[in-house]
Each structure stands twice: as structure tokens, then as C-alpha cells.
Amino acid sequence: MKISSLVTKTSKTIPGDELASNAQLLIKAGYLHKEMAGVYAYLPLGLMVIEKIKTIVRQEMNAIGGQELLMSTLQPRELWEITDRWDDKKVDNWFKTKLNNGTELGVGLTHEEPVVNALKDYITSYKDLPKKVYQIQQKYRNELRAKSGLLRGREFIMKDMYSFSIDQAQHDIQYEEIVAAYLKIYQRLGLGDLTFRTYASGGIFTNKFSDEFQFISPIGEDTIFIDEKLKVGVNKEVFNDDNLKKMGLHKNNLVEKRAVEVGNTFHLDSKYSDALGMYYHDQTGQKKSVIMGSYGIGISRLMGVITEHFSDEKGLVWPDQLAPFLCYLTFIADNDQQIKKTEKLYQDLTSLHIGVIYDDRFSRPAEKFADCDLLGIPIRIVINQKTIDDDQYEIKLRTKKELVYFNYQELLQYLKKKGE
Amino acid sequence: MKISSLVTKTSKTIPGDELASNAQLLIKAGYLHKEMAGVYAYLPLGLMVIEKIKTIVRQEMNAIGGQELLMSTLQPRELWEITDRWDDKKVDNWFKTKLNNGTELGVGLTHEEPVVNALKDYITSYKDLPKKVYQIQQKYRNELRAKSGLLRGREFIMKDMYSFSIDQAQHDIQYEEIVAAYLKIYQRLGLGDLTFRTYASGGIFTNKFSDEFQFISPIGEDTIFIDEKLKVGVNKEVFNDDNLKKMGLHKNNLVEKRAVEVGNTFHLDSKYSDALGMYYHDQTGQKKSVIMGSYGIGISRLMGVITEHFSDEKGLVWPDQLAPFLCYLTFIADNDQQIKKTEKLYQDLTSLHIGVIYDDRFSRPAEKFADCDLLGIPIRIVINQKTIDDDQYEIKLRTKKELVYFNYQELLQYLKKKGE
Residue A6 falls within a domain, yes or no? Predict the structure, then answer.
């Protein structure tokens, strides 16, 4: 894409009404527009990053047999009354709305009840189990405060998976398979080293701990204690001697950290399946409870975490696999030779399906480079007199200071490998 | 995918609370779950079809330089008061909700105002124009009646594009480019022959007609008059002698038809851009109005139209390019030889990326074939004794009665071509 045709531009000013540094930076770079506190629109570059995160998450969910579906945002009250999650005194962050005839509806904040209700006619025999379904969609939560940008939205993008099993043993196998997929996702996003599987309170349905996936970061709202050797964490809320014994952890090996939750997995037992009448018949024809789990990853929150973690004083820094474009390409002098050479390379990269944004503006190089840095594009390619005279292409990585020079063949080789 | 691992199943009974034949059929086949009147969940097979429609629409929007973004569902009241579209007396199909502090919010029914507001800092010079942006997302409309299944939803999936131009001449070029892309989309969806670009009332902002894209069908809610030779239609609402003269059409060549609207395009002039303060500076530095258009295609409505149009008494009939799987594969007798042969072909097709659903159940062939028909899979491949003895694979197309036989190499050749 040519930068002149891109609908957004970068800006030098920090938006005054935005407190969170992730959203400030994404707004300055033209990735995001703030609609109101906790509600953002994804402009083209921002949506490209969201789609790349979604693709990684989707691939790992599909790889373990997850089947994607899409539940509705509008929710009938009756479904949530069955499980006593309709009343605002019980669930205090519903957005609610009304049909023209006055009937109250919920605006989807999670989907256990509707998923069970939609699938209960299909899951009736032990032969139908185990199963895993998931969706990626907007969720709506009526948060009192929403000052953390993409880290805590009133409207946000989430992947939620639900598993169904014949018993606890089958459930445990599914649960661990999903946990393994989560750890793979954080690795692929570039967050693996600092993400800890963390014991957290299990809720009221089971005596098991739930798991949080906590990313160590000073911006985090949570306090956890980590064992770096075992690569495991404990949320402060369950940090006591009794629990540590159950977990097989030793206080002396645990270090306190701030962290931000980038995923969670819950054991639900048969709380929702029983309530909504999803049962299965076993080999002997006996009616039995379906054991469930639920598993969430905040896609837009991940974008916020990645923004804060990788960015520097010059702007955004995207890992290759998440950048809207792998390369930024421009010329130094606006002479015919350089422009022709640049356009030729732009064509070549485009036909090789290597993501490239071509800065075709006649601005000062320093201004262009500042934009490239603010946008966070991983590889900057500059066409200058050396390119014309000596077939030397100037390369600079967003994360490095040095300039590197490649001839044309080396350059293509290098980019093809990077783009894999 | 193996049918035994698919989370849904077909059903023999028509859902009692569903009146629309498109939704009845999609529910029977396990593509859709009804949440409430006008609100559906897309189960895995249904979501696959939606995604295929989205991909075609997205490709054509990108091909004309459209840039995809994603606006928010939650809408601040102030934005809509500026254009006088907040009051329920002015716009009677809003869903509204409230923040915990009592602030009223809208639940997105269209996005002219927020799109202009988000882009007005970026569109400030004649150099920034023309531009086109679009999104694909859920819209919410508080319809009094919602009895037409996917044809009129309270929650539905829509592609909406917005164009920005320096003047009417530039706008007209953009407008016609988008109309051409729309016609291409209907062709690719298999609806081209029966879709007519149709004059409709232009709204209050311009003296131009708007265009509807009307698909001729007895299920349609609209009455139009078509000139089959010119491939053009006139909506009843603008059907009078004066208008026909302006359109250059002759009453004698026009035939009355029922039709369902599958897209529309509007000239907005500078109604929204002026109101929300989006202006540009021309070459001489003069501040000028931005001319806009808006362009909608209902993705889920298209799924409903395609369902009704192609289906027959046996069930769904998907065109190759929209089917969740191109092939249905099964064996006749549950003997080792046939099962092995079937699994081998299943592996081969999967590794060739040819979409296939493998019916691995030991049911009666007649039952399996009925399922294949209800699901609407284009190509049925059956492994039987002839396959084992003579390398003959039995093929039946969903839209044909005859059986055809191919040897293994011919079969792969045929499917590769079909899958292109």
C-alpha cells in the first residue's frame, strides 16, 4: 500500500482525553480512534494487527479440534434467569436494552448459557463427546471505570472457547490440551517468556483452581508470585500456606510481580449444562451430567499488552508476525532514478506477497523515518544514491540501531525468509 | 472434517417457532440456531458459509481500493444528536442501552456519523481525497416484526462502505466503481442473472435516485418493474411517468416483479460531513465540503436469499464457491476394504486442500445420502464395491440426478478443477 492512499496519518500530539499509554500511542500512530472511555474503533492499520492476532489464535484453536461458531450479542433474559445471572445485583456489568414491545434483552458479556442452549440438542450421547467450540467476537461489559485503553474495554474483542466432556477425567485431558494451545499462542505472539500459567481462585463450582495466564509487566493490575524455574505463578488471591502445599510450591522460591492477565481457563463442572438441561446418555443408557470448561483470551487486550511491552520512546514496535506490514519502503531524494527504483522494488515485493508500505511522499527523510518508527514497521528499506550506483539497499530494523546493506538478490532472499 | 466430530447434526423436524423457510431449512441442517425472533447464532457450518460470502465481498471491496476498518457497536448519543438521528421519533429502530452512571448509549444500527467523526482529522486536504472505507460487522435494528429469518434480522451481519470525494464529479466516479463491484459480487455469489440495479428514492439529501440491487424472487417484500433487455429496474416507490422520463425508460418494456433487496447505494452529498465538521482545503486553500456516499450489502441476508433460491425439497443446495465443504465422502458397506479406501481418499483430498466432509457413520446409505442432500454439499463421492474392484468412484452432483464414475486420477483432476 502507498502511504498517500492510506486513510489515516500519524499525529504529533498525544490525545488529551486518553490516559492509557497503549491507546495514546495507537491513536497517535493512526491505528485506533477513541469513541468513548473503554470503546475504540479499529482503523485500517489497527484492524490488520487485530486480524493477525485472531489468525494465530484461530489456528491454535482449530489445531486442537475447536469448531468456530458465532453466538448473538442480543440475549434473551429467560436464559440468564435460569442460572441466576440476569439480576444486576448478581452480575453488575450487564449492558441491557429493550425490544420495541418493552421486552428486556442483554447485550452479550459472556456466552456459557447461550452456547449450552444452542448445543444441547446435539449433545445427547456419550458418542457426541468430547467437543470444543469457540468464537471470536465483541463482548460488552458495563465497567465503572475504563481508563486502561485496550487493557480493559467496555466493548472488546474476545476469543471464548467452551468444552464438553463425559466426566472429570475426559475434561482434564481437554483442559490441559487447551492450556497447551494457550501457551503456544503466547509464544507465537512474542509474549511467551514472560507469560506464566498462574493458579487463581476456582470460582464456586469446583474445588479446583482455575488458571490465569499472567504476563509480567509493570502496567499489570494483578499481583502474582512466580516460581521462575517451574514457570508457574500464584495469584495473590489464593496465596496462602494451605494452597501452596496443594500446589507443591515453596514460599522461598516465589517472587512477587505485577502482571496483566492475558487469558484464563475455568473448570465449570456441570453448573451450566445441568441448569440448562444438557445431558448425555452413557453406554448403558443412563442419563448423566456433561462436564464443562470455559476458556478466554482477550484479543484486543493482547494488542494493548503487545503495544505497551514492545514500544519505545519513538513509537510502536511490532513483532514481524503482527506488523500490519513487514517492510516500510521509501526513497531519499525525489529524483526520477530513485523513485523508479523504489517503485520497481514496491512492485516486486507486492508480487512476492511481502507486506510493504511504500512512503511515496516528498517529505524530509527525517520526517519519514520518524513516521516509520512511530508506525512500528519492523524493516525500513531506503533507496538512496548507493542503491543507484552500487546496487546497495539500506536496511534498518526497528529494534536495532545499525544500518545494513544488501544487494537486490540478498534483499529479496532476506525478506522472503523474514516473511515466512 | 469427519461428520462424527462435527458438533451439529441434521434434524427431521421443522422448528415450530420459525416461520421463514430460509431459517427453517438452515436450522434443520444444523447451520443456524434461533436465539429469538430476528436473532440467530451461526453454528460451525453456517459460519463457514458466512465467511465465504464475506471473503468474496471483502475481495471486491479491496480490489477498488476500499480500506477495511471496524467501528464500535456502542455509540455516544452526542454524535447522533448533531445530525438529529438520536430521537426515537426520528429514528424508530434504535436499540439503546445505558452506562452504569446513567448515560444513554446507542447500539450501532449504521455508522455514517462515527465514520465521519473518526476520519475528519485525516481528511483535510484535496490530496486526501478520494477515499473509501468499509467494515463488516453486526448491526442492530429494533424491528417491530422479524419473521423473515435471515432476510430481516434484529441482529444481522452487514458490509457498509463510505466514500469521500472532493466534488460531485469525483463522487460519481467512485459511486459507479462501487456499483460495478457490487454487480461483480452478485455474479460471484451465483445471483447475477436475477439481480437488477434498480432506481429507488434518493432520500432527502440529493435530487438523484439511489440504487437498490434487487434480486427477483417470489419471497421478496418489494415490488419493482424491470426492463430485462437493459437489465435495469425501477422500485414501485419512484414508478411514475416523470421519473421514467428522467430514467429514459419506457413503460411498455417494464414488467412487474417481486424482489428482495440485496444491496443499496446512496448519494449523501455533504449532509453528514458538513454536520460533523469534516471539510477539506482545495488547491487555493479554500475550505470546501466533502461529498459522501454510503453503500450497504447484507451478508446474512445474502445467506438467506441464497438458501431460499437454490434449495429444493431435499434441502439446501450451495453453489460450489459458498459450500462449507465442496465434497461429501462416504462408504456404502462397513467393510475394511471400503473404509480403508475412503480414509485414503479423505487424507488425499485434505492434503490437497479440497474441502471434504467425511461421513464416517455406519448408517444406512439412504439415511446418509439424505443428510448429504439436506446439508447441500455440491459433490457426493461414494466408495462402493466398484471402487474396490474397478477403481471406479461414484460421483453425484447435488443439482443433478445422474451418477458419474471416475477412476482415481480423473477424480482428483475433476475436484482440483472444481476447487479452484
Answer: no
